[in-house]
């Protein structure tokens, strides 16, 4: 075997690399099991309730950071404008606390999207860099526009616009996004005759 490896240097290099790969893979696998850090399951559940827009309006760089602050530092649960009151209610129910009112004052009650007045836009691209979901399209020194189906309504682009040509408008109600609020009736099981 040794003579074979000496006579074929490429084969000996492949055997050496394969051996090192197995050794390091084993060490990394052992370290992953031995030194695994368990995360707080409540943080993961709160993070799943947040909209994952990563807009930073809550004061944290991402939704998981905000979820950690809610669970570990008793941060207020109503600092997420894209999530709205429904997210606040869901987090309050999960944590077993009373749901406070939303922090938003003087804003539209429903979902909003950004709109760019293209006559005033001169293409500074500040809003392009700020949008966390890439809902704004355009180029340098060209007018920009918002893809309304991708806009989450976070409003970060409004503050960065140097010509104040971006405004937030309520999402128009159409047959595709209209929700009919049905009254809740108790469901009765036909066979068991018990209310659910």
List the SSEs and their pairings:
Blueprint: H1 2-7, H2 9-34, H3 41-49, H4 63-73, H5 84-95, E1 112-116, H6 126-130, E2 136-137, E3 145-146, H7 156-160, E4 166-170
Antiparallel strand pairs: 1-4, 2-3
Structure overview:
- By secondary structure, this protein is mainly alpha-helical.
- Among the domains are: 41-95, Orthogonal Bundle (3-methyladenine DNA Glycosylase II, Chain A, domain 3), CATH 1.10.15.40; 112-170, Alpha-Beta Plaits (2-Layer Sandwich), CATH 3.30.70.
- It has helices spanning 2-7, 9-34, 41-49, 63-73, 84-95, 126-130, 156-160; strands spanning 112-116, 136-137, 145-146, 166-170.
- The strands form 2 sheets. It has a two-stranded antiparallel ribbon. Strands 2-3 form a two-stranded antiparallel sheet.
- The longest helix has 26 residues, at 9-34.
- The termini are far apart.
- Residues 103-108 have low confidence and may be disordered.
In short, what is this structure?
The chain has helices spanning 2-7, 9-34, 41-49, 63-73, 84-95, 126-130, 156-160, and strands at residues 112-116, 136-137, 145-146, 166-170. The chain has 196 residues and is mainly α.
């Amino acid at each position: 075997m040794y003579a074979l490896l000496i006579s074929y240097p490429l084969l000996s290099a492949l055997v050496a690399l394969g051996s090192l790969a197995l050794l390091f893979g084993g060490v990394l696998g052992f370290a992953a099991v031995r030194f695994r850090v368990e995360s707080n399951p409540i943080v993961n559940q709160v993070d799943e309730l947040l909209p994952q827009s990563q807009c930073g309006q809550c004061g944290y760089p991402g939704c998981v950071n905000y979820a950690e602050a809610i669970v570990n530092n008793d941060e207020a649960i109503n600092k997420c404008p894209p999530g709205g009151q429904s997210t606040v209610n869901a987090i309050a129910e999960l944590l077993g606390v009373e749901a406070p009112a939303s922090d938003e004052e003087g804003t539209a009650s429903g979902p909003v999207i950004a709109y760019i007045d293209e006559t005033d836009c001169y293409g500074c691209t500040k809003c392009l860099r700020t949008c966390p979901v890439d809902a704004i399209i355009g180029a340098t020194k060209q007018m920009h526009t918002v893809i309304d189906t991708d806009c989450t309504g976070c409003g970060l682009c409004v503050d960065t616009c140097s010509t104040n040509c971006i405004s937030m408008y309520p999402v128009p109600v159409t047959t595709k996004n209209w929700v009919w609020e049905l009254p809740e009736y108790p469901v009765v099981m036909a066979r068991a005759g018990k209310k659910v």
